[in-house]
Amino acid sequence: MSKILVVIDMQNDFITGSLGTEEAVKILPRVEEKIKDFKGTVLFTRDTHFDNYLDTAEGKKLPVKHCIKDTFGWQIYDSLEKYCTVKPFDKSTFGSIELAEKLKEMNESEPIEKITLVGVCTDICVISNVMLIKAMLPEVSIVVDESCCAGVTPESHKNAILAMKMCQIEVL
């Protein structure tokens, strides 16, 4: 049985860029350590927007340009990029259906023992991907390492963690 680590949106714009937070900077060393020590497959997602971002439904509610494809802010954070050995799952919305479908396909080839998620933002993209994966793979153990996640605010991070626990997600 295989183990999967999914690193959600650890990109420049979410760490030190236009939507960066102190909490995201603080989790960087723990995320890197988790990836380095992980015995299994590591997959990354990458929030991906385009020049028309401000005209999108998301852009109208969050009018801060971020993760515009092919910009510095869109890139995986420098200290983590070397661990990204498989093309990231680019996603134009909070959750990646493509990632969830790929994990389901992988599970059909070789059963997945556990899927662990880390990254940002706990309260938006982490929780969205967790719920998609849980819906596609209800019998697979899904874990969120809270110490390797950061939300938009500490309060919204805690709320997301509680919501995931209620949906039978194991939180470390």
Feature tags:
172 residues; Rossmann fold; 6-stranded parallel β-sheet; 6 strands
Which helices and strands appear, and what pairs or packs with what?
Blueprint: E1 2-8, H1 12-15, H2 22-37, E2 41-47, H3 57-61, H4 78-81, E3 89-91, H5 97-109, E4 112-120, H6 122-136, E5 141-150, H7 154-166, E6 170-171
Parallel strand pairs: 1-2, 1-4, 2-3, 4-5, 5-6
Helix pairs in contact: 5-6, 6-7
Can you describe this structure?
There is one protein chain. The two termini are 21 Å apart. The protein is an alpha/beta fold and 172 residues long. The protein contains seven helices and six strands. The protein has one domain: Isochorismatase-like (Rossmann fold), CATH 3.40.50.850.
Helical segment count: 7
Instruction: Identify the CATH class.
Output: Alpha Beta
Q: Tell me what the CATH architecture is.
A: 3-Layer(aba) Sandwich
The helix-strand sequence is EHHEHHEHEHEHE
